[in-house]
């Protein structure tokens, strides 16, 4: 009988949080014109972390039809965490490119992992691979080892005890937002806005009663042209939620150059401390926001919520998943 990762893990130890997993494609399912679900399988996925949420993983793609060796089947590499050093030391013509994705679902008991990939035609290694992908093809997934004390590394969703939740992002953030909402505990209210290329990309999601998604079809508009106004309108219509979360003092924001720097800040709100928003008494807010997607748009949303609306920046997680016109740094 197959066992789950949670059952198999037993006592956690100090091994690295992430390790490479050797996998192969089990199934491909075209969810919409711009989303394909890739189901991966591999015996070692029994050890894959089960937290989901917005868990980030890296997928290493073949180069010139060959998958590079970074220790996916080497127990020593799993324990010493040297997969990236091995990748970096490879000759450039053997160094398979990697891209970052979000875990959509994981079923360790069945040795399966779902990754929803955005279908685009930018000519990059991920797009080329996906266009020709077929069951049986081999990949490497660098992801969480459930046996590690730090297997939660790579998760930025950290609302603490907040009960009023706002999420916003583009198609690259859709898998994370959907996974977060599907696992939302009772007693929390969430509103999400997701901008996708077309109306046919509105996905079916098993939402709890206290969560709502507004899908926005971009059509031929620029990135963020619908998302930013939608978030702005929500802020204006929800003063009862936003006002108690306002910081009392000034909150200078670094002017991040998204063309040369990474825009990323994911504060952990484990407990709503009395001085979180600079107040002398316990903060009356249970608000938390999570934004992810194209870095320029996320910078605008951060400015909108923190600088304009005055929300305490420690209540806002913002992640620039990608930048228009730039490839992911390796």
From TrEMBL:
SUPFAM superfamilies: Riboflavin synthase domain-like (SSF63380). Gene3D superfamilies: Nucleotide-binding domain of ferredoxin-NADP reductase (FNR) module (3.40.50.80), Translation factors (2.40.30.10). It holds the Pfam family FAD_binding_9. Coiled coil: none annotated. InterPro entries: FAD-bd_FR_type (IPR017927), FNR_nucleotide-bd (IPR039261), Riboflavin_synthase-like_b-brl (IPR017938), SIP_FAD-bd (IPR013113), SIP_fam (IPR039374), SIP_rossman_dom (IPR007037). PROSITE patterns: FAD_FR. The lineage of its organism: Bacteria, Bacillati, Actinomycetota, Actinomycetes, Micrococcales. This is Siderophore-interacting protein. PANTHER family: FERRIC REDUCTASE, NADPH-DEPENDENT, NADPH-DEPENDENT FERRIC-CHELATE REDUCTASE. Residues 18-151 form the FAD-binding FR-type domain. One of its GO terms (molecular function) is oxidoreductase activity.
């Amino acid at each position: 009988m197959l066992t789950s990762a949670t059952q198999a893990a037993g006592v956690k130890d100090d091994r690295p949080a992430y390790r490479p997993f050797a996998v192969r494609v089990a199934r491909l399912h075209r969810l919409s014109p711009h989303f394909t679900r890739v189901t991966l399988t591999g015996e070692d996925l029994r050890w894959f972390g089960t937290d989901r949420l917005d868990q980030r993983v890296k997928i290493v793609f073949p180069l010139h039809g060959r998958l590079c060796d970074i220790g996916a089947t080497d127990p020593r590499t799993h324990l010493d965490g040297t997969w990236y050093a091995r990748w970096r030391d490879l000759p450039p013509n053997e160094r398979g490119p990697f891209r970052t994705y979000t875990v959509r679902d994981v079923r360790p008991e069945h040795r399966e992992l779902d990754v929803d990939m955005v279908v685009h035609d930018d000519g990059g290694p991920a797009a080329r691979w996906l266009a020709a992908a077929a069951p049986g093809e081999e990949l490497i997934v660098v992801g969480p080892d459930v046996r590690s004390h730090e297997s939660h590394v790579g998760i930025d969703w950290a609302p603490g005890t907040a009960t009023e939740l706002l999420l916003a992002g583009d198609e690259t953030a859709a898998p994370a937002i959907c996974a977060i909402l599907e696992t939302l505990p009772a007693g929390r209210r969430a509103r999400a806005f997701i901008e996708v290329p077309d109306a046919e990309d509105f996905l079916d999601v098993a939402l709890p009663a206290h969560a709502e998604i507004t899908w926005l079809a971009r059509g031929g508009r620029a990135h963020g042209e619908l998302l930013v106004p939608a978030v702005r309108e929500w802020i204006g219509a929800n003063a009862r939620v936003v006002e108690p979360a306002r910081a009392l003092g000034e909150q200078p924001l670094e002017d991040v150059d998204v063309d040369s720097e990474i825009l990323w800040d994911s504060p952990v709100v484990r407990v709503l401390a009395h001085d979180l928003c600079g107040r002398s008494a316990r903060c009356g807010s249970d608000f938390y926001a999570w934004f992810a997607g194209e870095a320029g748009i996320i910078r605008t949303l951060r400015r909108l919520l923190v600088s304009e609306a005055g929300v305490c920046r420690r209540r806002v997680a913002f992640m620039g998943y990608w930048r228009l016109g730039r490839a992911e740094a390796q």
